[in-house]
Amino acid sequence: MTPRILLIISGGIAAYKSLELVRLLRKRGMTVRAVLTESAQQFVTPLSLGVLTENPVFTDLFNLKDEQEIGHIQLSRQADLVVVAPATANILAKMANGIADDLATTLLLATDKPVLAVPAMNVRMWHHRATQRNLERLHADGVHIMTPDDGEMACGEFGTGRLPDPERIAAEVERLLALPKQDDPLAGQPDFAVGVQRFSTSLETNGVRLAGRHILITAGPTHEPIDPVRYIANRSSGKQGFAIAAAAARAGARVTLVAGPVHLPTPEGVTRVDVQTAREMLSAVESALPADAAIMVAAVADWRTADAADQKLKKDGSGQPAPLTLVENPDILATLGHHAQRPALLIGFAAETQNIAGHAQAKLARKGADWIVANDVSGDVMGGDANAVQIVTASGIEAWPALPKGQVADKLIAKVADALSPRSD
Ligand code: C5P
What we know:
Elements: E1 4-9, H1 17-27, E2 31-36, H2 46-53, E3 57-58, H3 64-69, H4 72-77, E4 81-87, H5 89-97, H6 103-110, E5 115-119, H7 123-127, H8 129-140, E6 144-145, E7 149-152, E8 158-162, H9 166-177, H10 191-206, E9 214-219, E10 224-227, E11 230-232, H11 239-250, E12 254-259, E13 270-274, H12 278-288, E14 293-296, E15 303-305, E16 326-328, H13 332-337, E17 345-352, H14 356-367, E18 371-376, E19 386-387, E20 389-393, E21 396-399, E22 403-404, H15 405-424
Parallel strand pairs: 1-2, 1-4, 2-3, 4-5, 5-6, 9-12, 9-14, 12-13, 14-17, 17-18
Antiparallel strand pairs: 7-8, 10-11, 15-16, 18-20, 19-22, 20-21
Helix pairs in contact: 1-2, 1-9, 5-8, 10-15, 11-15
The structure holds cytidine-5'-monophosphate.
The site of cytidine-5'-monophosphate has 14 residues, from helix 13 and strand 17.
């Protein structure tokens, strides 16, 4: 059957890109019904959407004709997927709070179908605590959320908040439509839905077993500047570290999450410190001590430039690139391993592409850690949603099956709680 998309367009400058999105979805064989909020109509007209969707366009909750012919409840349920693109900070706030004060938000509250929100907004609005809090809540509610792109904004500022390319949105729509549909409303919704289901399980298994404990976590990459516009970094989405922070908070711990530059909302109940470079990360980690356990998940850049240029490096016409002198960054894990305030339990991660366990064993000793969580990154672990890890300790190796990152986090936190508990009894 032809996949049916209900496309809700809210009012941002990126709304004009919804026309291209409609074209791409239709090209992929989907039928599209469009709903425009009042402010979206300032950017695109119902007429142009009507022509492109070849369907009536809906704008008004109290339009009796539409109500008689279809009704808003039906409209919200006659789709296989509801897509909100662009999703402004305003509509995300309404969705997170269950506000239904126009047709678009009423449909979103009434639907029983999966929802994909594609945010687009000014960079400061994106990073605002309120928006991040709303995104976190929407994640927990099972809404799929795409991360906006970085780039120059319509307002002239630069940063995260641009609507992802319509091609990318269309691909994500296709991916979500292909997920298994089951009676369970949470089934078929990956990572965060698993997180929601896990939530109850982890509460049962972990309870508040980490209450009164301080868990320190690093996550994401570091960016080491070359000049004001270029940097050295590792590939890391931060997803695994953020999932561990969320799991630790759910288990009742006080959690400090030192995060490199990533586009992820702060998990509920977690204190987040944002840093850019390895040296900043080390200093934030040391400031957060003492901690009962430290879990160093960050993919820290091993090197930085000896001194970053104040001005953008230019090609000088000689054909010779500007020389880069690299110096080694501090090893945060090893520093903690030999620190006067060494946490009772110190856990490192090892991303390897070969001889996983062998390298992890060596790392354990070299860095003075208690456990190394080794993962094979030869596949698409970086940025992906699943992870197969081996826990390497002085007493042996425990291999876990491939699991969503949320479940790896829950299992690891349960193991941390076990390791810490004898000391508290
Ligand atoms: O040596 P390698 O980078 O593979 O070690 C990975 C582990 O060490 C991870 O836990 C990572 O967070 C930590 N690390 C660190 N500081 C560095 C490099 C790695 O804390 N400069």
